[in-house]
Amino acid sequence: MGSMWMMRQVSIRVVASTNSLLLSNSIVTSQFPISFSFSSFYPKSQYLISLVSSSQRHSLSTTAASSSSSSSSSHFGDVEEIVVSKNGSNSKTLLKGLTYSEFEDWVQLQGYRPGQALMLWKRLYGNDIWAHQIDELEGLNKDFKKMLSENAEFKALSLKEILTASDGTKKILFTLEDGQVIETVVIPCDRGRTTVCVSSQVGCAMNCQFCYTGRMGLKRHLTAAEIVEQAVFARRLLTSEVGSITNVVFMGMGEPLHNIDNVIKAADIMVHDQGLHFSPRKVTVSTSGLVPQLRRFLHESNCALAVSLNATTDEVRNWIMPINRKYKLGLLLETLREELRFKNNYKVLFEYVMLSGVNDSIEDAKRLIDLIEGIPCKINLISFNPHTGSQFQPTSDAKMIEFRNVLAEAGCTVFLRPSRGDDQMAACGQLGNPGAIQAPLLRVPKQFQTALNISV
């Protein structure tokens, strides 16, 4: 409880956190300093128990592994909650689902010093070890390692396959505990800025019409451990081949802010300076525009934000990105304009996938200039990457350059982003496996049917 000892009446709520939802278990009353044992309720080898205050409760992760939306913890006034975390049906604690403070609490709960927690943390995430099993934990106390073998789980994913595209991009397929498969992409860069693109969900609920993952619908959220492990595996498997992996983008399968609790928690683990130590400005979380979650992310995380814009009118965005029907362009951009006033030296990245005859006109470029006025930003123009069942065509290189030049002449910071890994379905918008049951294609507005070669 730290060095300050307080005597006050509080309520203690015991909460069991499994891979589904936080489940309220019981209420007991105590005073600080608190001394208690949960051995009669929960064997300590199965659970993480940590005490959090009402002010901290909002940042707790619910590690939800269901197709329901992420939800934040309930508020109970001056109630202190004890979070009891366990790895699904497995009796062992999955370490990569814990922030460092939770990690340290768990080690101390097992009867060991905080210093041993730091040594273990460095072997999981730092020192070029990225340990996945006990025999890789050199230099740790023998008894400590024995405790870990009995009570801790190190891996959240199983490697299924690695595919290599002609340009050197690597697509890694992972199998989850429930048999689902996710995809992670590692994008080498000659300038020493290799990026790992991680998934945050199995499938996606947003149904963006140009995205292959969106055809899957949402199967479930990934836990924080399953997200973090993608970056750990990438460094472990590919650092010797592609060099240091310096950047993380949450641009793989899923809408990250739909799974905001686990995404914020995973990002916190990734940027810890004694572990993976990614710079917060080099960890970028992308969103299609979930406005309340976007606002929360900007308040709670120092990581970078990307917004997938892709249209300059509500009519077009309602069609290609159905989330716009709930959070219109005006609301989305005004929220960014308001929030970024309070973040120094912070620029949002706008992603703009260019679809031939749909959103790539000079008029679109001029509207885009007006839309983003007053928002500190950079713009990435992205070539559409075709996939099975797609109605769209990519904008020509010449037209992309013309569009780029209009923005640049108006003073915008704008980049053309070439496709990477498209011959292995590893490029932007190509991840996943929709299967037989797919999300519906939406009606194409009349004025775009010719551009998509649809008979009127």
Automatic annotation (TrEMBL):
<keyword id="KW-0698">rRNA processing</keyword>
<dbReference type="GO" id="GO:0070475">
    <property type="term" value="P:rRNA base methylation"/>
</dbReference>
<dbReference type="InterPro" id="IPR004383">
    <property type="entry name" value="rRNA_lsu_MTrfase_RlmN/Cfr"/>
</dbReference>
<keyword id="KW-0949">S-adenosyl-L-methionine</keyword>
<dbReference type="GO" id="GO:0051539">
    <property type="term" value="F:4 iron, 4 sulfur cluster binding"/>
</dbReference>
<dbReference type="InterPro" id="IPR013785">
    <property type="entry name" value="Aldolase_TIM"/>
</dbReference>
<protein>
    <recommendedName>
        <fullName>Radical SAM core domain-containing protein</fullName>
    </recommendedName>
</protein>
<dbReference type="GO" id="GO:0008173">
    <property type="term" value="F:RNA methyltransferase activity"/>
</dbReference>
<keyword id="KW-0408">Iron</keyword>
<dbReference type="GO" id="GO:0005737">
    <property type="term" value="C:cytoplasm"/>
</dbReference>
<keyword id="KW-0808">Transferase</keyword>
<dbReference type="GO" id="GO:0046872">
    <property type="term" value="F:metal ion binding"/>
</dbReference>
<dbReference type="InterPro" id="IPR058240">
    <property type="entry name" value="rSAM_sf"/>
</dbReference>
<dbReference type="GO" id="GO:0030488">
    <property type="term" value="P:tRNA methylation"/>
</dbReference>
<dbReference type="InterPro" id="IPR040072">
    <property type="entry name" value="Methyltransferase_A"/>
</dbReference>
<keyword id="KW-0004">4Fe-4S</keyword>
<keyword id="KW-0479">Metal-binding</keyword>
<dbReference type="Pfam" id="PF04055">
    <property type="entry name" value="Radical_SAM"/>
</dbReference>
<feature type="domain" description="Radical SAM core">
    <location>
        <begin position="190"/>
        <end position="423"/>
    </location>
</feature>
<keyword id="KW-0411">Iron-sulfur</keyword>
<keyword id="KW-0963">Cytoplasm</keyword>
<dbReference type="InterPro" id="IPR027492">
    <property type="entry name" value="RNA_MTrfase_RlmN"/>
</dbReference>
<keyword id="KW-0489">Methyltransferase</keyword>
<dbReference type="InterPro" id="IPR007197">
    <property type="entry name" value="rSAM"/>
</dbReference>
